[in-house]
Amino acid sequence: MSTSNYPSASSQSQMPKKDNRGIIYGVLIAALLGTWGYIIYDKSKTKEVIQQKDVQYASLDSVRNQLLTDYQAAEIRLDKMTSENAKLDSLVKTRDKDVATMRNRIKTLISRQNASAADLAEARRLINQLNGRIEEYVQEIERLQGENRQLTADKEQLKQEKQELTQTLDTKVAENKDLSNKVDVGSTLNAANFQLAAINEKKSGKEKVTAKAKKADKLRVSFDVENRLSVSGTKDLYVIVIDPEGKVVKEEGLGSGTVNTREDGDKEFTNKVSIDYEQGKRKNVSFDLRQTDKYEPGTYKVEVYQNGFKIGEGTVTLKKGGIFG
Question: Could you tell me if 110 and 229 lie in one domain?
Fold first, then answer.
């Protein structure tokens, strides 16, 4: 049986067909890789955007925190100044009412959790304005303090001048008082020719000097007064009558009372006699003293005071009368 090396028709019809799956797989793999690449790229870009946003948010938050710190510092400074300076506090309340609005607006802006850059920019602008106001207040305080220091200095100078004037015035007052006292003392009337006698009044109206107690109806005081310094006018004389027992004779009808003397203190007086005196001229003074009770034997003493000084005195001794006398 012979064999043939030529291929048969059946063998030619069974040749392998071309396989396209590799191409498809390649395309799919390429597409998948492309998709993955895009996803990775897009994820990377998204992450980058997120990172940028985070940076922006962190930056805004940092700015907001810094603005909050700056505002709090300005607010503390303003509150401290207004609390320590009453005039400034009044000035802020009356002249700068918009400061409160400004502060409230700043608080609103920087307290927002999602504050925008525009919000923070506005807050920064308002804080700068607030600090500007604070600087104006500082200058106002310095001006007021300067004026206060000047006023204090002026007050101290005026106080010193007042003390000097007061001392000068006190010296002048003391000198004038001393001079007035000297003039006052020097104007006291001088009494001379002092006479004191007991008078007996007759039924006929005639008067006679007596030395007997039972015949004495009154005491007559007589003396001359003169002083070149004493001005013309009414002069009050205070007469003190002392009885033999050493007691001051006091009569309600005579206007008895108490007089203050310069050397002997307060003294009881028997009678007050007023005279009209003409400056520089000698004047005779004479008056009678009559008491309700009968005169007793012994020595009666009469003292006369004028201007607080004793200007004269005299005595008269009355005897006890005899059987016929």
Answer: no
